[in-house]
Amino acid sequence: MEDKKANIIAAISILALLVVIIAARVSLKLSKPFYLIAGVDISLILAVFCFLIIRIRYNRERKLLVSRFLSEGRELRTEYSFLRKVAGVPTKFRLEDLEEATDGFRSLIGKGGSGSVFKGVLKDGSQVAVKRIEGEEKGEREFRSEVAAIASVQHKNLVRLYGYSSAVSANRPRFLVYEYIVNSSLDIWIFPEKGNRRRTGGGCLSWNQRYQVAIDVAKALAYLHHDCRSKILHLDVKPENILLDGSYRAVVTDFGLSKLIARDESKVLTDIRGTRGYLAPEWLLEHGISEKSDVYSYGIVLLEMIGGRRSISRVEVKETGKKKLEYFPRIVNQKMRERKVMEIVDQRLVETNEVDEEEVMKLVCVAMWCIQEKSRNRPDMVMVIEMLEGRVMVNEPPDSDVVVVDLLAADDDDDGSSGGVRRVINVPRLQIQRERNFRLPSVCSSIISPISPR
Ligand SMILES: Nc1ncnc2c1ncn2[C@@H]1O[C@H](COP(=O)(O)OP(=O)(O)O)[C@@H](O)[C@H]1O
Ligand SMILES: [Mg+2]
What we know:
The protein is 41% helix and 15% strand. The protein is built from twelve helices and 16 strands.
């Protein structure tokens, strides 16, 4: 625009100067004043021409420079985004990109406590899982915890966060973009399909694959607890949050409830969070939680993998026809002491004849150590790896007096097998005496149960 204006002004000036020369020639003939005026005019015309030529050259060079900068900038940006990807730094996505990648959030691949997960493909062809987190305050908190925890970690058994998209306004959903893990979550590979609840995918994981998953998850948790700059407590370890890749190796996901604490902090006070069935007793019994609370949930997951059943389930009593809650760890404890561990192994696995009884005993003992009532009696995850990989002998765990079955298992209308219902709850911390068969106030009476055989 500026260039055009300058050219027009120059052309008009040259025209005006030529008109002046013609007018002077007509009125002054070839007199001395005419030559004077013509001389000045011609010099002015030459000056305008020079100005135009200089300007054109200057503009050409400027355009060249700009285009060079632009292409260098583009290259830099490409390089930068490549480096970000290699370094695992999450990228900020636009909502439109995510809509395009998921084809308008069409293919739902999972649902959990914080939102829905959709399959998608990014422009560079990589397959992703896009998690849509709803809810204003809770959503924001889970979104922040998840980004804070997972953005800084790199481990082959932890899911990779490619990027995120924060909410445009307070009540709009937030998004997290993860690498897509093909075989979905562990629950559909260890729990048999229920007649009335059909699901897509899944099957029966072999004994060796289950044992490998146990090691993979232990490694992921050991890394979070011991090898990161801040200690990361996952606080929602359960089969639904353990994904299986193409080779059925475990990838731990869902850091929505996680907590970052300083390396030298041994216990932390926080609101009760997690999923019923996997909550460690210290949420109620001790002053604060620690990485040992993850060890407890891990122990429960081990038992669930061994038995192919939830730790708490509702079973029918033959004589009365009534249903009652059955606590699997108590049964395992009894069978372990009677040296009859094969009786608690997933029946589908026993039929294959591929289960090694010694390995079952080892896994059962590790699990029972992990769910010890007192957190200080549980091993840390590094020790768990040592035990599972056979570098440390596993002794028989001591008998616990009582175990808090679960904070919320008292729900009568639940069959205890939901597993996916996660809650962050605010209840007063209860100071309770630990005694055998201690009777609790009605709200908690069914959450404590003796683990030792009666
Ligand atoms: N990266 C992923 N690849 C494949 N499936 C996934 C992935 N992330 C989550 N899912 C599926 O979605 C479910 C819910 O995801 P999760 O992150 O646990 O959400 P929530 O925080 O709502 O519990 C998982 O149990 C799993 O089946
Ligand atoms: Mg989850």
